[in-house]
Amino acid sequence: MLLEYFQMIDAVEDLDPDNGKIIARADVPMESTVFEGHFPGSPLVPGVLLIETMAQASGFMLLARMKFEKMPFLANVTSAKMRTFVEPGEVLLVEAELDHDGSGFATTKARISRDGKKICDSKLMFRIMPFPNDTLKNNMLDRYSQINQSSTG
Amino acid sequence: MATTFEAVAEIISETSDIPLEEITPEKNAFTDLGIDSLDFLDIAFAIDKNFGIKIPLEKWTEELNENKADVDEYFILSKLCTRIDELIAAKDA
Question: Is the model's pLDDT at B83 over the cut of 80?
Fold first, then answer.
């Protein structure tokens, strides 16, 4: 994770685009400017960044499913539960699955766990839109190729 | 069993916090009820789930953007319900 750059996913470990499933890994850094403010003396990954992490895992699954022809933009955090704290240095398992493949939108269910213990879960909705430009599309393709360690997708 | 309109009105009321009595068949979801595009995604999601269909929102939006259709054609609730019934019939055929 590079929290300051919103690079939340470090590796895609398993991906099944046809069935709308992804398992990814996120390595929480030991140090980040984010921790200087959240919180002084007690560094924790902010809940909004955990939601972003679940959204990005969902997003990579949707991108692979759509063969990078369109871009999913987070539109609605329908629900999110933060069950426990995430501290620097932790290794997180991020899972997401397609809940509904609509026309121009998609919904997912996502969760983060650590050593089998549930940390947070969410229901998310994405608006599916054309890429606004090739720069973003190429950036997403580059990032995906950097993190994709799965045998499919 | 609720009619298509009754089910859609219930969904709109719950999703957009609009009193059920204000939701009538001749109303346009956007121009009369003030529903925005993001709220309509929630409504489309609930309609898809409720009726087991896939409302072709992308196609409708494209037609509206290209002035090939008028917003009333898809989003006056009586017409929306007719299109939902057509999608249900096509699914069951």
Answer: yes
How does DSSP classify residue A108? E
* CA-based nearest distance A102→chain B, Å: 6
In angstroms, how far is the first alpha carbon of chain A from the final one?
Answer: 22
Give the residue numbers of A annotated as catalytic, written as ranges.
38
Residues in chain A: 153
The percentage of residues in chain A with a pLDDT greater than 90, rounded to a whole number, is: 97
Q: pLDDT band for A152, please (50, 70, 90 cuts).
A: low
HEC sequence for A5-52: HCECCCEEEEEECCCCEEEEEEECCCCCHHHHHCCCCCCCCCHHHHHH
Tell if the pTM clears 0.90, that is, is over it: yes
Burial level of A41, CB count in 10 A (0-12/13-18/19+)? exposed
pLDDT confidence tier of residue B71, bands split at 50, 70 and 90: confident
Map tokens 């879960």 to a residue: A121
Phi, psi (rounded to 5 degrees) for B59: -65, -45
With contacts defined as CB-CB under 8 Å, which chain B residues touch A125?
41-42, 45
Residue B31 at interface with chain A, using a CB cutoff of 8 Å: no
The interface predicted TM-score (ipTM) is 0.88
User: Do residues A136 and A71 touch, judged by C-beta distance below 8 A?
Assistant: yes
* Secondary structure class of B66 (helix, strand, coil): coil
Residue with the two structure tokens 């007690």: A42
* Sheet containing A21-27, strands listed edge to edge, beginning at the edge strand earlier in sequence: A11-16, A21-27, A91-101, A105-114, A117-129, A71-82
